[in-house]
Design a protein that fits this description.
By secondary structure, this protein is of the alpha/beta class. It has one domain: Rossmann fold (3-Layer(aba) Sandwich), CATH 3.40.50. It has helices spanning 12-23, 41-53, 98-113, 135-148, 150-153, 169-178, 203-215; strands spanning 3-7, 27-34, 57-62, 117-119, 159-161. The chain has a five-stranded parallel β-sheet with strand order 3-2-1-4-5, with helices on both faces. α2 links the parallel β2 and β3.
Length: 224
């Protein structure tokens, strides 16, 4: 059984991605980043999800990107609410270079483990305009990994798996349910209220709601 490093946020997409990796026979090593995000409730969800997936090891790493600012997720700037899902442009919730930083850390752990497989739950359809969720970025990082690591230079291909890349949110939800996932364990909201209750108005909440509606399924988080 091969080892794989999974970037696990506690959200719907990363949970589904990890379950797909497990279904493909990988032993899971989950990496969660505490990066100064205002929606720190997702860290609790990541722990619960990691336990549900029975990962081999779950690491929580502190990499405080809030010191740089530049995002409404890591500063006191207001999180956009009630925006149309089709809005063009990069929203203020984009965290500068976040996925580049996250993948670099996952790559370091994977190399230390002797693993050549990394899974990330990025999506090119419901990606909110984030540049570091596009297929071009994933392909470029995979190329970088082959140049930047001892195993890559030695001829072992490092693979960045993004199995949700071309799926809609509804398709992701259906795939997860087929794998037996409980989405009530996950957290998606960018600006949760007291007790972690989702705001229901941010981009992430809107995308999640649209996905469950399109799948014809009630969101279990809202039923609790």
């Amino acid at each position: 059984m091969a080892d794989a490093v999974i970037l696990l946020s506690g959200g719907l997409d990363s949970y589904t991605t990890a379950a797909i990796a497990r279904s493909e026979g990988f032993r899971l090593f989950a990496l969660t980043l505490r990066y100064g995000q205002r929606h720190a409730r997702e860290l609790e969800a990541a722990r619960v999800v990691a336990s549900a997936l029975q990962v081999e090891r779950h690491l929580e790493l502190d990499v405080d990107l809030s010191v740089f600012g530049g995002s409404s997720l890591t500063t006191d700037a207001p999180v956009p609410k009630d925006r149309p899902l089709e809005t063009d442009g990069i929203p203020s919730t984009y965290v500068p270079a976040r996925n580049t930083v996250f993948l670099a850390l996952a790559l370091a752990w994977a190399e230390a483990l002797g693993s050549s497989d990394i899974f990330i739950g990025v999506n090119a359809l419901d990606y909110s305009g984030y540049p570091d969720c596009r297929p071009e970025f994933i392909q470029a990082f995979e190329r970088l990994a082959s140049l930047a690591t001892a195993q890559g230079v030695g001829g072992t291909r490092v693979r960045i798996h993004a199995p949700l890349q071309h799926l809609s949110k509804a398709e992701i939800i259906r795939k997860g349910l087929a794998l037996g996932l409980d989405y009530g364990l996950t957290h998606s909201c960018y600006d949760p209220g007291p007790g972690g209750r989702p705001c229901g108005r941010c981009d992430s909440c809107a995308l999640r709601a649209a996905g469950f509606a399109a799948a014809g399924i009630a969101d279990p988080v809202l039923l609790r």
